[in-house]
């Protein structure tokens, strides 16, 4: 696909959104296309919150540290945390690091996953955050698991989360703006919701540094990474060398795949061998929060890395399934890989 066709696609898609960004690197050639509403001034370097795409950085940093320190995926996470973590309904079944990474630990986001800045993770778990299933028996996507893994990263690395993950974060990005230069933070792109005839900023208008805190909740590791479109593509390119260990398969363990959003899951990666929305195997991660919807993906067969960012979803749209617009984006990038 030529850059002209990429531009045309962005313009075609952008209508209902505040901002649409598309990026691709095919066999070493990087291309970008951006379309936006007239009230915005956007280029590929403006940063915004990328939601659950953050899990790539957490999962891959964790995989590297586990390899370095010879910690197995089936290790009891309590042995690393230094305090006991278990489902009170199944106290004799350990919670493994791999189960947390693969969303099979039995955690229930409906019981809360926003960790207060003045509360430790251990104190947070004095309330039951688990569902009714034992660890390892069911896939249920849970943000809370990646808060636990952020603390595991800090324990294994001996440093704070931003420093431990810094080699994985491109483009001066950072979790909740921590580590992002002042000039880049001042140029933040808010995330919008479309409400009636206009767009209302939901977050990062302006970009605010979080207050000092005692827990990893300060960083919002489950979804608080800020990147630009350029940084998203850099992260997609890095997936060539990602740890692709499969920790959950829908064919082996039951689960809620959200209508085909999940087929396999690894260290912060959605892994597709036969996706319904794309003609070849694919790895990466989607994001959906505060009116943002996007993805960072890598197609190894075509050596194609790509990313997309849609900003300004309708108020109340919380559907995690791939939208018609996203499927159109996937189909267009698939053709780029065919060329």
TrEMBL record:
It comes from the Bacteria. It holds the Pfam family Beta-lactamase. InterPro entries: AmpC-like, Beta-lactam-related, Beta-lactam/transpept-like. Residues 43-316 form the Beta-lactamase-related domain. This is CubicO group peptidase, beta-lactamase class C family.
């Amino acid at each position: 696909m030529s850059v002209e066709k990429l531009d045309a696609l962005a313009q075609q898609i952008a209508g209902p959104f505040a901002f649409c960004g598309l990026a691709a690197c095919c066999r070493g050639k990087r291309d970008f296309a951006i379309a936006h509403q007239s009230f915005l001034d956007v280029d590929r370097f403006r940063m915004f919150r990328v939601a659950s795409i953050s899990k790539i950085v957490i999962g891959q940093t964790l995989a590297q540290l586990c390899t370095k320190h010879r910690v197995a995926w089936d290790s009891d996470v309590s042995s690393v945390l230094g305090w006991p973590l278990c489902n009170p309904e199944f106290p004799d079944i350990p919670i493994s690091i791999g189960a947390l990474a693969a969303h099979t630990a039995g955690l229930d986001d409906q019981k809360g996953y926003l960790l207060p800045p003045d509360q430790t993770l251990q104190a947070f778990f004095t309330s039951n955050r688990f569902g009714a299933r034992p660890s390892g028996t069911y896939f249920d996507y849970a943000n809370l698991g990646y808060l636990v893994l952020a603390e595991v990263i800090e324990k294994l690395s001996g440093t704070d989360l931003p420093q431990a993950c810094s080699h994985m974060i491109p483009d001066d990005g950072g979790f909740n703006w921590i580590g992002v230069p002042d000039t880049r933070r001042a140029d933040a792109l808010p995330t919008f919701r479309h409400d009636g005839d206009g767009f209302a900023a939901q977050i990062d208008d302006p970009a605010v540094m979080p207050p000092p805190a005692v827990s990893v909740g300060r960083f919002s590791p489950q979804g608080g990474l800020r990147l630009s479109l350029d940084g998203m593509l850099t992260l997609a390119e890095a997936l060539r060398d990602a740890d692709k260990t499969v920790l959950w398969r829908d064919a082996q363990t039951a689960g809620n795949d959200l209508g085909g959003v999940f087929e396999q899951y690894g260290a912060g990666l959605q892994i597709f061998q036969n996706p319904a929305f794309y003609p070849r195997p694919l790895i990466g991660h989607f994001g959906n929060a505060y009116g943002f919807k996007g993805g960072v993906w890598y197609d190894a067969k075509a050596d194609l890395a790509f990313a997309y960012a849609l900003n300004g979803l309708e108020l109340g749209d919380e559907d995690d399934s791939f939208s018609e617009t996203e499927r159109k984006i996937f189909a267009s990038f698939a053709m780029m890989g065919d060329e």
